[in-house]
Structures are given as C-alpha cells and as structure tokens.
Amino acid sequence: PTAELQALDAAHHLHPFTHGDALNKKGARVITRAKGVTLTDSEGHDYLDAMAGLWCVNIGYGREELADAAARQMKELPYYNTFFQTTHVPAIALADRLAQLTPYDLNHVFFASSGSEANDTNIRLVRTYWEQKGHPEKKAIISRKNAYHGSSMGSASLGGMSAMHAQGGMPIPDIHHIDQPYWYGEGKDTDPAEFGLERARQLEAKILELGEDKVAAFIGEPVQGAGGVIVAPDTYWPEIQRICKKYNILLIADEVICGFGRTGKWFGSETFDINPDVMTIAKGVSSGYAPLGGSLVSDEVAEVLNGCEFAHGYTYSGHPVTCAVALENLRILDEEGIVTRVGSETAPYLKEKWETLAAHPLVGEASVCGLMGSIALSPDKANRAKFAAEAGTAGLICREHCFSNGLIMRHVGDRMVISPPLVITKSEIDTLVERANIALDLAHKQLKD
Ligand code: PLP
User: What are the coiled-coil residue ranges (predicted)?
Assistant: First the structure.
C-alpha cells in the first residue's frame, strides 16, 4: 500500500533536493510505471510528464528496444572498463556515433556516468590542456550566476546556485561567476539586444580583472535549464564567442539539457551558432534509460590531451550496457525522425499554444525554445512584479495544482518550466496547455484569497 511505501521511504531514503519535513508531512509520490509521455503512480493516477523526468526522457517512456539492447549487452559483456589501453565494441561504436552527430570537429569523447561527472572531468580537462601547452597558470573557469552544472563539488562550484554554494563550502577555488543573460527578470527597462551585449561583456571584464593569462575556460548552457529555461537575447552568444576567441580561452557548452533534440536541432550549439571547444553531454544521450555522461572535445583539444596520460577516469567510463542503450536511443531518435520533427512541427506548435498562456492574469511572460518552455508568475504583470512572499511560494502552489490536475511541471522559484519528451504529439500538447491553464486559474484564485 502507498502509505506503507511512503513511510519506509521517509524512514530510510534521503532524497535529492527535498526537505525532510515535506516527506514526513505528506509522503513522496510513488511512481510505478510509464508509457509514452504518461506516468502512473501507486494509486493509479496518470500524469502527463511535461518534464521528461528530469529533462532526460527524450524518446519517451516504455521503448522496449532499449531494454532489449541492455539485456543483449548484459548477456554478452556486462562490464568491462576502458582504462589501461583496453576498450570494447559498445564504447567504440558510441564514440564514433557521437563524433558523427556532434557539430564542428567535436570528434572525441571522454565518458562519464552523469552530467556532474562530465563537468568535473571538464575542470581537470581544460586545466590539463593548458598545462600541456605550457600555461599551468591558466586555471580559472568563468561561469554564470544561476547556472546549473551538477551536484558534485566541482560541478556545483561551476554552477551558480547560491543555495547550493551555501552548503558544504563551495565554490572551490578559481571558479568565478558573472551575471546571467536573464532579460525578463534582470533587464527591466533595457533593450534586449543591448542587455545581451552588456551581460556577455561581463565576461570580457572578468577576464581582464583576472588576467587573460589566468583564465582557462568559460562554461555556459546554451539555454539555462534548471535556472528557469532562460533564453539569452540573440546578441549574447556571438559576443561570448568573440570574447573567448579574442582572449584565447576555451568555450565549454554544457549541453546536458539542450543536447539530443531539445532545442529543435541535435545540439543547442547549432541552434545558437556556438562553436565550442568542449561540450558536456548526459541525459538525452541515453534518454535517461541508463546513466551516461560525457565530454566531447575538438580535434585540437584531443591532440593536446593525447600528448600526456590524463590521470582521470571512472569505473563506469564507457560502461558497455549504457553505451549499448545510448546507441539504440540515438538510432531511434535519428531513424524515426524525432529530432527533425521537433524542429519542423512540434516545437512551432508548442510555441503557438504555450504563448497563449501569456494572456493569463498570473503570467508575466511565456517563452519557448524548441521543446523547452517557461512562464514567469507575477502578481502584477504590467510591471513584471515579483511575489512578496519567499520566491517559489507561488511556483510551489502552481506545481501542486498541476499535480492534482494530472500534469507534471517543475517550478524554479516563481517560474514554471516544461521540457516534455520529444515524442509528445500535438494533441498531448493541447492537453498539457489545457491542464496548465486550469492549474494557473486555481493558483491565481488561491494566491488572491
Ligand atoms: N549540466 C546541466 C546543464 C544540467 O541540467 C544538469 C542536470 O540537470 C547537469 C549538468 C548535471 O547532470 P547530472 O544530474 O546527470 O549529474
């Protein structure tokens, strides 16, 4: 029974990003199965999962081909590592497939099991690159406030979440943060194009402050996901790219969310015309069916790294089962035209429908990039006012109304975000927006009362 499961869960399971009091008051929702875009809980309620789990189930739930690929690989070779000059067919095949799929000359991959691990790898990788090139003093990495790059000490330091930094002594040394390109929330009264340039030029100012000979890399998500689906003004990325080139610092695109179709192309770097030296991947590479992450690097970076033994690696770097699952996932995304369809059909349709939410009295802004969307809740939309109560209260209320109306949306403070499976149909998008409207009406009423 659900209550017993919840009691056991609260007694023994420490959850990520969950307050213990909340679990004790009202147990966790127990999710038992899923198919397509729909999750079912232990009490038989169905939810349209507008978050694709944690932005990862790009292919949708219940694809047996992936289970079969895992089973086949487990029977053949369930585990072997890729250390000390050994390798195996699934890792070789996946590295080759990723080199074909990624843009530019990102032809080399270092495997990990998650985005956090991959970003930890990147810290050491870019520093090792500069050491090899005779510039060991180039250590600093510049990131952005409110960025999310993972939960390990290194990756959370790269991230710019102040609540995370406040726990456990982060950021680690030599990581710096500039402001995010969040025009709606922070660019009031400015022109978006000017604002984009101003925020990008903070990178230049930071490089000059630290000294260009001290800076190794800049890292950014093409679209900030966990920060609230924040799409930078058009002027931002070209300027970032120009500054990285001018000062000879490596550009790391964290594509953990944006990669594998989310923005309507295979990679966010293609959507925003970014030419990174290093790219972080995870989530959609295996649609979350098996844990996999990685760092893709350019020919030049690989050549420099291959000039030494990079003393870094995980037991599960290039795990054969996860590689086999990822290969099958990528085959389906490609052969069924799922990524192409997002770009040509589903994303434009979501944009049309999602933007209607901007008319709701509680919504200050509705924006979409590919199959990622967000709305900003505001008590006074004409002035883009924020709620007086602690940020997130209105968002939390709205999220709970979504749940009770069969919709899973996430709240980031008082922004509601979505990132549904890429296989979502137009009629499922209609349902998503209808349920969001109902939840907004209920939240609006509750916040007024
Ligand atoms: N980078 C980005 C942009 C992410 O959104 C996430 C997770 O949400 C990560 C890194 C960390 O990935 P993981 O949770 O697989 O460690």
Answer: none
